[in-house]
Each structure stands twice: as C-alpha cells, then as structure tokens.
Design goal:
Blueprint: H1 24-33, E1 48-49, H2 61-67, H3 78-90, E2 95-99, H4 102-113, E3 119-122, H5 127-135, E4 139-142, H6 163-173, E5 180-184, H7 197-209, E6 213-217, H8 221-231, H9 240-249, E7 253-257, E8 268-272, H10 275-288, H11 299-312, H12 315-334, E9 347-351, H13 352-355, H14 365-377, E10 379-380, E11 382-384, H15 386-389, E12 405-409, H16 417-432, E13 440-444, E14 455-458
Parallel strand pairs: 1-10, 3-4, 5-6, 6-7
Antiparallel strand pairs: 2-8, 7-8, 9-12, 11-12, 13-14
Helix pairs in contact: 1-14, 2-11, 3-11, 4-5, 4-10, 8-9, 12-16, 14-16
This protein binds ligand PLI.
Length: about 450
Amino acid sequence: MSTFNPMAEPYKIKMVEPVKITTREFRQNAAKEAGYNTFLLRSEDVYIDLLTDSGTNAMSENQWAGIMLGDEAYAGSKNYYHLEDAMKECYGYKHLVPTHQGRGAEQLVSKALISPGQWVPGNMYFTTTREHQELAGGQFVDVIVDAAHDPLDESPFKGNVDLNKFEKVIKEQGAKNIAYITIGVTVNLAGGQPVSMQNIREVSELAHKNGIKVILDATRAMENAYFIKVREKGYAAKSIKEICHEMCGYTDGATCSGKKDFHTNIGGFAACNDDDFATHMRSNVVVYEGLQTYGGMAGRDMEAMARGMLEACDDVCMRHRVAQSEYLWNLLDKAGIPLVRPCGGHGVFIDARAFYPQIPQEQYTAQKLANDIYEYCGVRSMERGIVSAGRDKVTGHEHKPKLETIRLTIPRRVYTQSHFDVVAEGIIELYKDRDKMKGLKMVYEPKALRFFQARFEKL
Ligand code: PLI
C-alpha cells in the first residue's frame, strides 16, 4: 500500500445526480408525513442519504460497461459463469447459487439446514437473517462477545464470537439441536465491527468438532478482510482476496448480499462446498428466486456484480472506503458526540441513549434521533435499536437491545469530504438542542421487520 492520503478518492467523477436543498420547515412536514420513520421518506426530499450502504453505491465505468454485455438468456447466461468464476477467485467456495439479494440466500440456507425447534447461534442478530431462521422454525441465540454490546469498549475485534457462550449452547442444547452457527463479518448491528481470523478459525474448530456447520454472512467480508489486514498480526502483507479465501476456508458456506461490497444496486448469492447442500438450495432457488443460473437477477446485474466483486477486493479501494467512515467518525468524536467505538467499516453509529438520556428506550430513543437529524440537516440515517430488534416471536415482548443506536451509513464512492462536513455540522447543532427533545409513540406496527414500515407520533 502507498502512503497516499487515504481520504483522497481513488476515482474521479463522470456523472452527477442533483440533490435537493430544503428548508427545516419543509423537512418537518416531510417527517410528519413519513410517520417519523426515515424509511418512509421520499428519497428526493433527502439531501445526504446515509440510510444504508445497500444498493446505493456508485458503480465503476467497468461495471456499467458490463451492464451492456448482459446475456439475458433464461438459462445458462454467460454472465452467470463470470459470476461463478469471480466468486471462486474471491471466496473459493465450490458451488454458487445466485439470488436476487442477500435475504434470498438467507431463505435458501435457512430452509436447507434448519429443522423446526433447532437453535441457530450467531454473533449478534441481523434483521433479515434472524427472520428467515425463525420462519424456518429455528431459534436464534446471540453468542457475540459482551464487548459488542458496550459502545465504549475499544476492542479491535468487537464482532468476535464468544467461544464460551457458543460452547455453553452446545452443552445445554446438544450439538444435534444446533442447525449451524452464523458468523457475520463485519457485524452490522454492533457498529460494523470486525471478526478476527483467529476467532473464525477457533469457532470453526469448535463447531466442526461437534459436527456443526459454519455459515458465513459474507455481506461485508471484504471490509472484514481489510480490518484483519490492518489490525491482526501476520496479515499486513496479505491481499484482501487471500484473507477472504482463508476466512471462507474455515466455513461450510455463505450467504452474501451483493449490494454492499460489490457496489451493485441489486444481487446476492449463497455458496457452499457440500454437493447435497448445494442441490437442496438449487431445488429451492427455482421455486423462490429464479432459475439456478440467474436466481432473480438479470444477466446484466450478474455481470456488474462479477466485475464489482473483483474490483472491491482492491486494497486501495477498501482503504478509502474505511477512511471515509473514519473521517466522519473523527469529526463527530471531536465534538463530543457519543459514538459506538471504535469506528466500524460501513458507517458511524451514534449512541442514542447517551445522546438523549432523557428519552427512555420504550419511547424509541434512536428512532427519534434519526428523525431529528433529518429535520435539522436533511441527512437520512437509520434506527438500529429497539424498533429494528422487533418482538420475541414466542412471548410477543419487545426485544430490548443494549445498543440503541442510529447508523450514518456511508455508501461507497458516492459522497465527498464536504458532504461529511455538512453531516457533522448538522448533528453538532442538534446536539446543542438535545435537552429539548421528547420521545415517540408507535401508532402502526407491522408484524414482520417492523422498522421498515412502522409509523410514529411525537409525544
Ligand atoms: O438487503 P439484502 O437482502 O441484500 O441483504 C440482507 C443482509 C444480510 N446480512 C447483512 C449483514 C446485511 O447487512 C444485510 C442487509 N443490510 C442492509 C439492507 C443494511 O442496510 O445494512
């Protein structure tokens, strides 16, 4: 790697998308109409959109060129084979099953591996992943290290699985009652925190010793590989691709949303090594997604994803990506805004409990903060707290996660340094007014994945 300033973009801009600058009064009305849920805002009413890094990234000229080379045959598209080659080159699994996005892959894996009543340990839940595990009759159990739940803990690999917790689940429930363990890399809801190679290796040893499969949520595996490179001893000289191969080598399969690391607007895949596991997923992909050689994607989307995958594991590209998150994190940290520490990969997480200590979690602290940031500066973020956590399927009680955060997610190659300056200025202004703010009550609650569509009123 060169010593070049990591914030300096390793690309230049060829096309621009105008964004609307609005008044606070306009945004207050828009927020009310959206039921104080940033998912329900119209994107054209947002100035800087940090809702997600999923499908919102800027593709390269090489990816756009690939779009023109879509082979839209129903079966056997050549783009599928390009995607298969790219997946093998970057991750090394034997079988590829394409899906329309990550949750399509989660459905296939959950249906293939979970028998009703089985447990599925994982390093913190992810919304769609847990939903599919529960729909397949499984029960998620969190085995992440305690540090992950503490916003102030500075451990470099806060996404790690706690081996003692995992072992306890095996002892208490019996290995045959465990469908598999999921390792998310990086851990989204913990703040984009990475998992170390040593931890992946040790989890794999413990799981395999007990005949339990290991499934990687590889959605941001390349970001995780970058953190291993810069934080874990012995990996500085290895390429992101080599690190990805090693991570995947300890696992039996993976689900992946192509909408993150690969800069594409749509796409995903499941992958595995076992022939029977692949056959099971392929028999379901034709029912729920599309033929096994397109899985819900157009040929052109598979081509863009294949090219994006090969581009994303470039060290300079990934270093710049993480540098953008760190830049915003540093601006906010210097101003005393309470943040999840250390800075993760795909965004900056604000600790809403510490930002608004007067608003109890039952009044949707982080939901209110996400709304207020929009009203103050036109920046859209996402709640990652009690609303996202939803309800226990058995008791009906709300899950009350220790982390009550909002996420300022950084789309790849989309925003510049001055955009991040504006985001920080707006949030710092809001922080000065924080004592004035009150919470929300929920007035509409959907049954599944409620955070997407729930509506609120101000108290
Ligand atoms: O949005 P999908 O269906 O392509 O992928 C689902 C998904 C699975 N795993 C992880 C770790 C994710 O972050 C993920 C999607 N994340 C979204 C949409 C996000 O905003 O973070």
